[in-house]
Amino acid sequence: MAEESPDSAYHSHGSSLEEEAAERMDDEEQERLLSYWQSVGRGHQVDVPRDMAEPIQQLTRNNSPQERQSIPFTLIQRKEKLGDLLYEKRQYGKAKWACIKMKEKQYEQSICLGFMKLMRYICEQNSSGLYLGITIPIVTIVHTNEAQSEMARAVTVAYYLPEVLQDQPPHPFDSDIIIEEWPSTIVYSRSFRGITNEDSIMREINLLAEILESPELCLQDTFIIAGYTNPAAANRHNEIWFLQRP
């Protein structure tokens, strides 16, 4: 039997050391990211469990701007005043979304917990066993009373399936996640920054209602919050969407 040369033994041992070091760095990164999300979660009164470590790491590594796919739409109109953009009128086409209904005590709890469930689906916990890719924005459907003075607790957090998966969406392992096909919709969109909670959402709804020439053309009790940054971010980029009546 041929003996292993010292040189090949060195390379074999060296590569295993490199693999161990890489695994150790990988574990350290996972712990650091999990710890960060857990501290953010506590601020929203949400517990981030240990099994979120891997999805958080996957999402973080694949969250560069060039990796994210924007939901396609057709711009119909831009309304400006003194150089400031007041709102955009857009048309979104018929498409499939992964949706989860949440009903926590606070809106922030619902979107954080809903987003975590969708993260698991995106990060391989699906029938394809593959990482599905990030699409933006992640949207939340909210409901108010007819007077638009109070927000209901029940919300739906939704993830737009990438173009290549629209025809055959992978099946979620989590039975709480439902794949829905949404019809083509015209929305009136206005951008805002910061945290999203019951107060800020109601403020943005009232603000856009004042700006629109004909708000009665839109649904009066159903709105969408579009989030372009994850719930852990401090200065988030959001939009409020009014939905034109079918």
From TrEMBL:
User: Which parts of the sequence are annotated with region: Disordered?
Assistant: 1-30
Q: Which Pfam families match?
A: SOUL
Q: Where is the composition biased (Acidic residues)?
A: 17-30
Q: Which InterPro entries match?
A: Reg_factor_effector_dom_sf (IPR011256), SOUL_heme-bd (IPR006917)
Cite a single GO MF annotation: heme binding
Per the record, the similarity remark reads: Belongs to the HEBP family.
Task: Tell me what this protein is called.
Answer: HEBP2 protein
